[in-house]
């Protein structure tokens, strides 16, 4: 099953203090629908395994503010293996294009063991490109990122407002399903990350709701934050 967007979407990110989060959460929940994939009031849990080249291309491209960049990751939800998706996220400034293709648990285990030749035989161009990254660009697992996403949706403009909480980095394993995975908190508790994603325009109703002029936009990368935690842990 393939899920891919055909156009770039705009993505704005903000750090919120806990008080601002509670205020915006109250306004969003009273006006918008919560993502139907939510399993409780905190939303749903996302855990991703990121891949990077031997020279940490994705890490340095982000830190150096390269306008055009991309990242590969494998993502699961709520710790389950019913949905395992290989994703490629492309960035062009504030614009984002995300492609996704599901693989089976058996294929995931195969890939993690270093046997990824099967990817080049897939019908998905994304998986074939992922194979090239692994086989010819020496991409390898570099970080596990986990957080809870509380998401609200608005039909006009295809808007998603998300509050990403409890951001943590895996520090002892690169296996998404490792029962002994140790997660270390990556940002201070008073902060929450808000993301606002939309297509060609941000409706006035949403602009008035989130009041972006009163928030501080930031160039936030959960991958970079968790890589820094990971590197720090292994240096100690």
Helix/strand layout:
Blueprint: E1 2-4, E2 9-17, H1 18-31, E3 33-34, E4 44-52, H2 57-63, E5 68-77, E6 84-92, E7 95-103, H3 105-112, H4 125-136, E8 140-154, E9 159-170, E10 183-185, E11 191-198, H5 204-210, H6 222-235
Antiparallel strand pairs: 1-7, 2-7, 2-11, 3-8, 4-5, 4-8, 5-6, 6-7, 8-9, 9-10, 9-11
Q: Which percent range describes the beta-strand content?
A: 35-45%
Q: What is the 3D shape? A: globular
Q: What is the strand arrangement across the widest sheet?
A: 2-7-6-5-4-8-9-11
| Structural class by secondary-structure content | alpha+beta
Give the averaged pLDDT, no decimals.
Answer: 90
Helix run count:
6
Number of strands: 11
Low-confidence stretches: 1-5
Helix/strand order, N-terminal first: EEHEEHEEEHHEEEEHH
Describe the 3D structure:
Helix content is 26%, strand content 38%. The chain has helices at 18-31, 57-63, 105-112, 125-136, 204-210, 222-235; strands at residues 2-4, 9-17, 33-34, 44-52, 68-77, 84-92, 95-103, 140-154, 159-170, 183-185, 191-198. An eight-stranded antiparallel barrel has the order 2-7-6-5-4-8-9-11, surrounded by five helices. Strand 6 and strand 7 form a beta hairpin. It is globular, with a radius of gyration of 18 Å.
């Amino acid at each position: 099953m393939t899920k891919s967007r055909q156009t770039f979407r705009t993505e704005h990110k903000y750090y919120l203090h806990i008080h601002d989060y509670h205020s915006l959460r109250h306004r969003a929940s009273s006006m918008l629908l919560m993502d139907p994939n939510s399993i409780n009031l905190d939303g749903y849990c996302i855990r991703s395994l990121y891949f990077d080249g031997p020279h940490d291309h994705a890490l340095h491209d982000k830190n150096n503010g390269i306008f055009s960049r991309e990242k590969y990751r494998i993502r699961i939800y709520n710790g389950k293996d019913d949905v395992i998706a290989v994703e490629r996220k492309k960035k062009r400034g504030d614009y984002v294009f995300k492609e996704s293709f599901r693989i089976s648990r058996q294929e995931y285990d195969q890939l993690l063991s270093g046997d990824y030749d099967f990817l080049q035989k897939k019908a998905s161009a994304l998986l074939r490109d992922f194979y090239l990254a692994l086989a010819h660009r020496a991409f390898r697992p570099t970080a596990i990122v986990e957080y809870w996403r509380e998401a609200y949706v608005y039909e006009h403009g295809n808007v998603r407002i998300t509050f990403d909480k409890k951001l943590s980095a895996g520090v002892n394993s690169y296996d998404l399903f490792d029962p002994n995975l140790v997660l270390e908190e990556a940002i201070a508790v008073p902060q929450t990350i808000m993301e606002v994603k939309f297509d060609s325009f941000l409706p006035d109703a949403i602009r008035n709701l989130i009041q972006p002029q009163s928030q501080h936009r930031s160039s936030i990368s959960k991958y970079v934050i968790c890589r820094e935690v990971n590197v720090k842990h292994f240096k100690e």
